[in-house]
Amino acid sequence: MSEIHIPVLRNEITALMNPEPGGIYVDATVGLGGHSICILDKSFPTGQLVGIDRDACALAIAKKRLCTYKERFRLIHGNYADLPKLLESHGFYTVDGVLMDLGVSSLQIDTPERGFSFQHSGPLDMRMDRQICVSATQIINDSTPDKLIRVFTEYGEERYTKKIVKQIIAERERKPINTTHHLANIIENVYSSNTKYSKRPSNKNKSIHPATRVFQALRIEVNAELDNLTLGLEAAVSVLKPGGCLCVISFHSLEDRIVKQIFRKHGKACICPPKTPICICEHKKSLRVITNKPVNPTADEIELNPRARSAKLRAAIRV
Ligand code: SAH
């Protein structure tokens, strides 16, 4: 089971967060519980952990993996954007540490029926929380061309956006695009008619699969990932005790940019526009950033766990 999803940068996180007995810690993206186990072990015997995830299937697995920790942990199904409300509903108000390990879990990527991956054939779904109504199928088949262009450009930085959208529109008039492979084939065809791209890139030239960016963009749109991240970071800052630590692992530049911006905003004593003669913002410094540069995984970790290769860890202390 521990092989299912190897927690990224676990030593670095436990060193920065320093979970201690008696502390209360939040794993806001509990996934399969890998990081939660590290936090519970490090805060033995009396540290408590609240684990949150949008994905009920992940929580069911995490519950089994954590069962030996008995009354030291609680799991909550919900969105980390609602962190204060979720904590309050379980009688917690402030905490000593919050971890956010962004993105998708191996469970989500490797389960074909979840529709996250172009590597597996499955329904085009991509909902982390299956209670939300709009899946990737609806976005691909019902959105205006302008909306698809915006999503692929903003969230995927896809260079053939217009050509891909044109093909999607033509194809969905013929037949709805309901599967991961149907969409991936449309994208592959656009790439192969525009570049010398080979469908099976060799390991030497480490080019990514042409569907990677569009799938990333769709996933972000379906789960409103960037809006939730902004809300989640603000929520995490608001529940930390002075001295409490916020650790965030991001996996692409759109996420990392938001983490950097929020850390910078809370790291300043004043956010008035430049040249404002006197401070009118009443903003207070609430974070001290303790990672001047993001912490990256070592070459050994990447070799052991390729998912770690694009991870960036930033951490800050509540002041
Ligand atoms: N650290 C975990 C893996 C986390 S993978 C481990 O060691 O196993 C990221 C997880 O974050 C996924 O399970 C995903 O469902 C969850 N997630 C993503 N966005 C979320 C949000 N807004 N609120 C709560 N959970 C979220």
What does this structure look like?
The protein has 319 residues and is of the alpha/beta class. 42% of the residues lie in helices and 13% in strands. It has a seven-stranded mixed β-sheet with strand order 3-2-1-4-5-7-6, sandwiched between helices. Helix 8 (161-174) crosses helix 9. Bound molecules: S-adenosyl-L-homocysteine.
Question: How do the strands and helices of this protein lay out in sequence?
Answer:
Blueprint: H1 10-17, E1 24-27, H2 34-42, E2 48-53, H3 56-66, E3 73-77, H4 83-88, E4 95-101, H5 106-110, H6 136-142, H7 145-156, H8 161-174, H9 180-194, H10 212-222, H11 225-239, E5 240-250, H12 253-267, E6 287-289, H13 299-304, E7 312-318
Parallel strand pairs: 1-2, 1-4, 2-3, 4-5
Antiparallel strand pairs: 5-7, 6-7
Bound molecules: S-adenosyl-L-homocysteine.
S-adenosyl-L-homocysteine binds next to helix 2, strand 2 and helix 11.
> What fraction, in percent, of the residue positions are helical?
40-55%
Ligand catalogue:
S-adenosyl-L-homocysteine
Instruction: Outline the biggest β-sheet.
Output: 7 strands, mixed
Cα(first) to Cα(last) distance is: 38 Å
Mean model confidence by pLDDT: 94
Oligomer: single chain
- Poorly predicted regions are 201-205
Order of helices and strands: HEHEHEHEHHHHHHHEHEHE
Instruction: Give the DSSP E fraction (strand runs of 2 or more residues).
Output: 5-15%
> Gyration radius, to the nearest Å?
21 Å
Number of strands: 7
| Number of H/I helices | 13
Based on secondary structure, the structural category is alpha/beta
Characterize the overall form. globular
Which strands sit side by side, in order, in the main sheet?
A: 3-2-1-4-5-7-6
